[in-house]
Amino acid sequence: MFSILRHANSIKYLKSGSCLFTVCILLPLQAYAVTPDYDGLIMEARAGNRAPLLQYLQAQEQQTSLTANQVADWLQVSEWTDNNKETLRVWQRYHDQIAIPSRGQIAAARAFRNEKKWNESLAVWESVLREEPDNADARTGWIMTLADSRRNEQAITEATRWAQSEPGPDRDALVAYVYHAQGKNWDALLAASRAETEAPQNKNSQDTLVAALSANRVAGPALDMSENLADADPMKRRLELDAAAEIVRAAFTPARNEEERFIVADKALARYDQLLAAWKNNPDAQSDVRRARIDRIGALVVRKRNAQAIAEYESLMADGGNVPSYAKRWVATAWLDEEQPAKAEEMLMSIYYPHGPVAVTPLSADDHQDLFFAHLDNENFDAAKRQVDELIKDSPYLRRVYGSPTPQPNDTWLLGQTLLTQYEVASNDLPAAEKHSERLARTGSGNQGLRITYASVLEARGLARKAEQELKIAEVIEPSNMELERQQAYVALDLQEWKQADELTDDVIARSPDDTSTLRLARMRDIHKKSELRLSGSQGIASDSPVSGEHDFILNSAIYSPPINDNWRLFTGFNFATGEFEEGKGISRDLAAGAEWTSRNYWAEMEISGRNYGDGQKIGGRLSGWHDFSDNWRIGGNVERLARSTPLRALRNGVSSNGGDGYIRWYQNERREYQLSFAASHFSDGNDRIEYGLSGKERLWTTPHFTLDFTPGIGGSTNSKEDVPYYNPKSDFAVVPALSADHILYRHYDTVWSQQVTGAVGSYWQQNQGSGVITQLGYGQRIQWNNVVDGGVMLTWDKRPYDGKRERNISLAFDLNVRF
């Protein structure tokens, strides 16, 4: 019954034949008929053909005065045609002239009510009740109008009093209508259920219960009860749409795995396909077709058919008309999944903040997260921080629950703290993120998600083993948690635990194959299993250096196979170097092949090379490796026969070298690390060289798009011989403090374009030559694309002394790493 509240022309329902609202005073076969045909016109009007009677009355009005009963007939039949304006026009012309019977007054009162002229309608209802206090139709209409006009207390009082004095299903149905008008849908459902229980065969009781179920989103049972409605009936279509929308809402409910949600979403999509096919050619159903297309977007988003959901939305907008906010939220989610955060952010802001900084409605937890990640993904860090700050400010740690004397933990507070951690990670403030996430994980030890977040921050800081320990603790709570397994898989990749990474990734893919987070993890695993091309080198532009010579060019290259049995990769490479010296041009060519082995805490490479540097083909070899003791300490080194580090000028003069090097690295986190290195070489001319160095990095300044590092370097060497054809100081030492700046010019998910600026001023000392100044400047740019391409160039200018003379060098260095 009370579904009519949602329709301006509420009188349609009253003609449905219900006991409560049926027209109880039918047009009589008038004994006072003016013509013998009048009775026939009345019969036609009652049968549905109302135009002849209305035309007759209009003509009769011009010829003679109408009787009170004729006016009542006119009002009633006009009201049957839903012509409220004509009904009220007749009423305004005659109600002050003649005493119109109650049936005519009731028709006028209904017309006033349909036009939402509540006061006029109430006045007519009350006039009828003064004359006929037992008129059930009039009392029903009066109470319904009280409810429509928001006179809530009076409406429920009158409806309840009448139901108590004259119990019955019709009275309970009226109470249900009043409750619904007040927005108390559960109370309305109780009253409607009581009416249906008392008279299950009563059509009015059934219709009232159907409307109550629909209002409470219990659409399935409502649809089942409406089987007596024709498929073309608007109410039947509305219930069909409500039932389909109920399936869509169920598809958004968290489930044990993604497959269960997909089954529900597929059921919804199949139902929408049936409805759209049945209604597409029905002109009266086009508004229902549009609603079906709108609600169907939700099922498409759950099913990860994002491109189709976006296309449907754009088609709806092109057709004109409004798309409700709930559907726009779905489209925003689709845009985020399709990596179009600018569109998602713009749409969500238009929904929540259309008029400025104050939200039009309170945001739910899902609303906050969607908008927050739209800000972050669109690199709008200021907006993301404002949102988090406002959420935390408005969310106390504890909240009062009505009826409970004990304050309860506030989930919104926890959401704000979690989003703050995500902001700190995205804005490159990893120390704050670690401190914050650790405090949350320690104080909320039973919350698995907090410990997973803490582990992800540790991994972002390069502390994979510590992250692994935290995830192992989190595993106790729910070992099969998919977010836990995803994070464990990432950590396993960092730790070179290849089999473990495969098992975790395969399990997550089996359980949620189309989830965005799963697809990203699967891609990272797939990238690891690709072949790899490495290129690096430099091109001298202007150089006076006795080490590299003029017009120098260096190219190092290697191609690695996909992993074999997880731990092995084969590779082959080609290296080339050339430069002009006083004694002539030097050229070196290397063709190498070997194998790489990786496992937890270990990396090793074995290489055999054929070297040609002007003195025939010679066989060289190399063995390199490192071992991680922990997240913080690494030791490594390599030994070489015919070392590639041999100066080109020495090779030009037929001098080769064998040697080895070792290093110890201490890594605190991404902001601080130091490395101590040592190398020894024995040249074929009898010279023995010892080299040592200390390098490091200290982060000075960090913003979301900019970092500034202090990179000090200390190094020196000694040589046993001096009279050699290559630069070979007896002893030298250099101290070169430097600054390195990195600025992100553009970033879109895994595509980053950045520029680098370096500068250094230091001192160089050479035995028997004194000391001099070293100055260096560099500018470069780097592109990282989709995790498979990483390449950059750097233009460097430096000036330093060699044998007491300052020499200038301008060169272009490049590197490229491609996975394919």
Topology overview:
Layout: H1 11-14, H2 38-47, H3 51-63, H4 68-80, H5 84-94, H6 102-114, H7 118-131, H8 136-148, H9 152-165, H10 169-181, H11 185-198, H12 203-215, H13 219-225, H14 234-251, H15 258-279, H16 286-302, H17 306-318, H18 325-337, H19 341-352, H20 365-377, H21 381-393, E1 398-399, E2 408-409, H22 411-426, H23 430-443, H24 448-460, H25 464-474, H26 482-494, H27 498-511, H28 516-528, E3 532-543, E4 550-560, E5 568-581, E6 584-599, E7 602-612, E8 617-628, E9 633-641, H29 648-652, E10 657-669, E11 672-683, E12 688-703, E13 706-710, E14 713-719, E15 731-736, E16 738-748, E17 751-766, E18 770-785, E19 789-802, E20 805-819
Antiparallel strand pairs: 1-2, 3-4, 3-20, 4-5, 5-6, 6-7, 7-8, 8-9, 9-10, 10-11, 11-12, 12-13, 12-14, 13-16, 14-15, 15-17, 16-17, 17-18, 18-19, 19-20
Helix pairs in contact: 4-5, 4-6, 5-6, 6-7, 6-8, 7-8, 8-9, 8-10, 9-10, 10-11, 10-12, 11-12, 12-13, 13-14, 14-15, 14-16, 15-16, 16-17, 16-18, 17-18, 18-19, 18-20, 19-20, 20-21, 20-22, 21-22, 22-23, 23-24, 24-25, 24-26, 25-26, 26-27, 26-28, 27-28
Protein name: Poly-beta-1,6 N-acetyl-D-glucosamine export porin PgaA
Domain PgaA membrane beta barrel: 527-820
InterPro entries: PGA_export_porin_PgaA, PgaA_barrel, TPR-like_helical_dom_sf
Would you kindly provide a written description of the structure presented here, covering whatever features stand out?
- This is Poly-beta-1,6 N-acetyl-D-glucosamine export porin PgaA.
- Residues 527-820 form the PgaA membrane beta barrel domain.
- It is elongated, with a radius of gyration of 42 Å.
- By secondary structure, the chain is an alpha+beta fold.
- It folds into four domains: 1-149, Tetratricopeptide repeat domain (Serine Threonine Protein Phosphatase 5, Tetratricopeptide repeat, Alpha Horseshoe); 150-216; 429-528, Serine Threonine Protein Phosphatase 5, Tetratricopeptide repeat; 532-819, Porin (Beta Barrel).
- α4 (68-80) packs antiparallel against α5, α17 packs across α18 and α20 (365-377) runs antiparallel to α21 (381-393).
- Helix content is 45%, strand content 27%.
- The chain has an 18-stranded antiparallel beta sheet that branches. A two-stranded antiparallel ribbon has the order 1-2.
- It is built from 29 helices and 20 strands.
